[in-house]
Amino acid sequence: MPQAGGDERLEDNNIELTVVVPTYNEAENIGALIDRLIEILDREGPQTYEVLVVDDNSPDGTCLIVREKAMEYPGKVRCLLRRRGRGLATAIMRGIYWARGRYVVVMDADFQHPPEIVPKLYWKAVSTGADIVVASRYRPGGGVEGWSRMRKLMSKTANLIARILVPNTRKVTDPMSGFFLVRKDIVNLSDLRPRGYKILMEIIAKAYSARIEEVAYTFRNRAGGKSKLGLKTIVDFLLHALSLSPLVKFSLVGLLGALINLGVMSGVLMTGAPLDVASILGIETGLLFNFFLHEAWTFQTKMKGGWKSRLIGYHLASSGGMITNYLVMKGLTLAGIATALTGQAAGIIAGFGVNYALSQSKVWGVDVIERIKAGEIRKTGRTDKEMH
Ligand code: GDD
Ligand code: MN
User: Fold this and answer.
1) Would you kindly state where each structural domain of the chain is located, as residue ranges?
2) How buried is residue 109: exposed, middle or buried, by Cβ count under 10 Å (0-12/13-18/19+)?
3) pLDDT of residue 370
4) For residues 238 and 160, is the Cβ–Cβ distance under 8 A?
5) Contacts of 160 (CB under 8 A, 6+ apart)
6) Which 8-state DSSP code applies to residue 122?
7) Is 199's C-beta closer than 6 angstroms to any atom of ligand 1?
8) N or C terminus of the chain: which is more exposed, having fewer CB within 10 Å?
9) DSSP state of 283
10) Which atom from ligand 1 is nearest to the alpha carbon of 62?
11) What secondary structure, in 3-state letters, does 52-82 show?
């Protein structure tokens, strides 16, 4: 293992590309993968590159094979051995941290991510100036090999859920890809709290001003060994997507706004004002309260200008929600499906959905936030100091 101190890392820190390969029990694949990567990168890759395997102390001796390869290809191959801790996402973060390259490609060891795509990702970044290049199964020309209907459906569903919950993922066709390139200095490692497998989703969710491109590829069958992905990854994915979603914050703010609405209304009623006046004042105060919290907290726009049009937009989104509420209640009660109260309750849920959908797509949409944040200085992550 390269017991790299910070100095050594800095000295030859100016290479072009690091290919990070996380491994757990990939002895069957890793040797052949390294051979293939070196062959392809020598031919089509940048002048300077390295292959960095991050192994979680695999009992099958994966790291030993990598070290043999390191002697065969001096200066081009390293194995980072983690003796403590396991997990794909943290292994990838470790790899990005220790990468010497200006660009980092992350890929699986099992040939499911074709090595021929690696130089394509690199040259795409160089030629377009992109900060992130996603190898995508869902671009024209891409695909999956040997997947059952069920597996395809699950993948599509996860993709849809990510799109609904995490607005930034709409910039790409395959936010769940495990195969991608990032420019090292746009990843703020101390900012990442990955859960489960989908670290790309989090990087994209948090990299507002990043330029993202995609390259199509076909996800192949595993060469040897077996997958480490189990059912738990589905739960992990859902919790991860929720943690990255403005939906939870939006709901909390909405609840608080409703309480403020009621409080103001009863206060105004006590002054002897008419019911309509009290109600409208309650509604408007709640709405303003929601608006400013959404600006500062839910969507964290940190913007200076443009808030007036967003304020009008938020009134429209909320009106859309209230009209939906009314129509759903009316429809359900007329159809005899619901009582007045259950109808209204269903209406509140539907209205909330409409309000949220409009707010996060139109008022605080990805494009809007992107433009606002585009001026922000890029940060580098340099907090993860320990190493195993
Ligand atoms: N260091 C380390 N630690 N590596 C791990 C661990 C771990 O705990 N678990 C898995 N890996 C390595 C594997 O050895 C392999 O190289 C890579 O991570 C992917 O693991 P697989 O077990 O092959 O995952 P998969 O093929 O089921 O899932 C792949 O496809 C998904 C898309 O459907 C991955 O690329 C996912 O990231 C991707 O989302
Ligand atoms: Mn795999």
Assistant:
1) 15-244, 247-373
2) buried
3) 60
4) no
5) none
6) H
7) no
8) C
9) H
10) 14
11) EEEECCCCCCHHHHHHHHHHHCCCCEEEEEC
Rounded distance from Cα 228 to ligand 1 centre (Å): 6
pLDDT tens digits along 274-300: 999 999 999 999 999 999 999 989 987
Closest CA to 33 of 69, 64, 86, 4: 69
DSSP 3-state of 112: coil
Residue-averaged pLDDT of the chain? 89
Q: Is the minimum distance from the CB of 214 to ligand 1 under 6 angstroms?
A: no
Q: What is the pLDDT of residue 378?
A: 36
Which pLDDT belongs to residue 374? 55
Strands 77-81 and 49-55, sheet pairing = parallel
Please work out whether the CB of residue 54 comes within 6 Å of at least one atom of ligand 1: yes
> In the chain, which residues have pLDDT < 70?
1-12, 229, 301-305, 366-388
Instruction: Give the 3-state secondary structure percentages of the chain, helix then strand then coil, rounded to 5.
Output: 55, 10, 35
Superfamily of domain 15-244, CATH level 4: Spore Coat Polysaccharide Biosynthesis Protein SpsA; Chain A (3.90.550.10)
